[in-house]
Amino acid sequence: MNSTARHTQTPGRNVPGRFRSPFTRWPRGADAVLATALFLPTTLLEEAPGDGVAVRPVSGILHPALLLFLVAGAAMYRRRSRPVAVLCVVLVAWAVTLGSSHSTLGGMVILALYSVGRHAEDNRWGPLGVVAAIAALTIDGVLLSVQWEDIGFGALVMSGAWYLGRRLRLRSERAARLLTEQAAEARRIVTEERTHIARELHDVVAHRVSMMTVQAGAARMVAAEDLQSALEAMAAVEEAGRQALDELRHLLGVLRPDAGRDGLGPQPGLADLPRLVAEVREAGLEVSVSGNVQGPIPARLDLSAYRIVQEALTNVLKHSGPGTRTEVHLRGESEGITIEVLDNGRGAAVGPEGTIHESRPGHGIVGMRERALLLGGTLDAQPRPGGGFRLTAHLPTKGEPT
Q: Maximum CA pair distance of the chain?
């Protein structure tokens, strides 16, 4: 699975607990039911004196206009894929019956206008369809001696149906565009973070190779006089070589574009946490650290654990501000490291669908999660029920990148 896909989710789709209408769940079936629901009253009912509605007699139902109703009703089934053609068919069927008792296709025209606004790619057809529908409505009203107020209200309803469909289409397009931009931003963050991680791991390996070179030179110089010291130095070179190869195995496949180097040297690790905690305390956070990690751990794990804690504390300071009480819990196990960061502040803004929105573009939660995934681990960041935020990362010692 693409790493970006793990961090993004399409809003409104496959989200537990979100209501989806039948027109979204089963569009074809819903359109078939809707077309039938419009066809039946159009065929079976007619206007009665006094603005009433009456059931047509059998002779009225078995009328040549029934064929027009069938054609218009069948066309409504294609209102999503061919909205302009459907509107033309319905308008033509209505035009044939104007001024008669079978001029009852107004409901289908309204829905066809809405469908043009909602589903038509070319925006020019909407206003043209509205003008044609209002013209037909006016002619029908004049032939049947309908009051002008009623004709005006009908024209308002028809134009409003198209406008509503158009507004919903624009909103849907904006949502799709926002989703595309969010996915592109997530890909950018992941790519940038992978590049940064590759640079750091490259520096770790370069530092180990530099140490191997120094140790090998020392072993060569003392080999003639102190064989035991030379053997110990070469054993250290062998161990450093194994560690360097292990780091390189995790570095492979991560793109490292040409970029400015920060200089060779050891990267920070969990041993540097006291200095980091002192810095954020000076910035105003109330930070406490509990637990520790015993024994040697791979440099990539040590570096990523430090960076996750660093970014988590930075997020707390950025989103919740000075004075926020923050707890960092470390737990070392034979399988890896567990990091938990708790705070009682506001945390990152949580939007609809449980998505997390950060106030600035950059690494943040996406970057921390990418670090964990590249180690074969996991990272979860969620608001706490009583307020604040909880971040939990599991970093395995021998995990593979996912």
A: 122
285-320 burial: b if 16+ Cβ within 10 Å, else e: bebeeeeebeeebbbbbbbbbbbbbbbbbbbbbebb
Alpha carbons 384 and 347: distance in angstroms, whole number: 9
3 state SS of 289:
strand
What distance in Å separates the CA atoms of residue 43 and residue 63, rounded to the nearest whole number? 10
Please count the CA atoms within 13 angstroms of the CA of 89 that sit on its side-chain side: 22
CB 327, CB 277: distance < 8 Å: no
Q: From residue 311, give the alpha-carbon distance in Å to each of 46, 332, 371.
A: 70, 20, 11
Backbone region of residue 253 per phi and psi (left: phi > 0; alpha: psi in -120 to 50; beta: other values): left
Q: How far apart are CA 222 and CA 236, in angstroms?
A: 15
282-337 pLDDT per residue, tens: 777 889 999 888 777 888 888 889 989 988 998 888 888 778 899 999 998 888 89
Amino acid at 185: E
Helices (H), 45-102: 58-61, 65-76, 83-97
**Pick from 266, 206, 210: nearest CA to 237:** 210
Q: Is 187 left (phi over 0), alpha (psi -120 to 50) or beta?
A: alpha
Of 290, 308, 312, 289, the C-alpha closest to 300 is: 308
Q: Which residue, among 234, 221, 391, 396, has the nearest Cα to 320 in the 3D structure?
A: 391
Place of tokens 């003008």: 131
Structure-derived torsion over alpha carbons of residues 392, 396, 401, 402, reported in degrees to the nearest 10: -50
Taking the C-alpha atoms of residue 80 and residue 295, their distance in angstroms, rounded to an integer, is 64
According to DSSP, the residues that pair with 356 across neighbouring strands are: 350
Is residue 51 within 8 A of residue 5, CB to CB? The reply is no
How far from 156 is each of 91, 135, 139, CA to CA, in Å?
17, 12, 16
Amino acid at 307: R
Closest residue by Cα to residue 306 from 279, 255, 267: 267
- Token digits of residue 100: 């008669």
Residue 240: exposed, middle, or buried by beta-carbon count in 10 A (0-12, 13-18, 19+)?
buried
Per-residue pLDDT tens over the stretch 182-222: 888 888 887 777 777 777 766 666 666 766 776 677 777 77
CB 331, CB 370: distance < 8 Å? no
pTM of the model: 0.45
Q: Which H or E run contains 33?
A: helix 27-44
3-state DSSP call for residue 2? coil
Element (H, E) at 349: strand 349-350
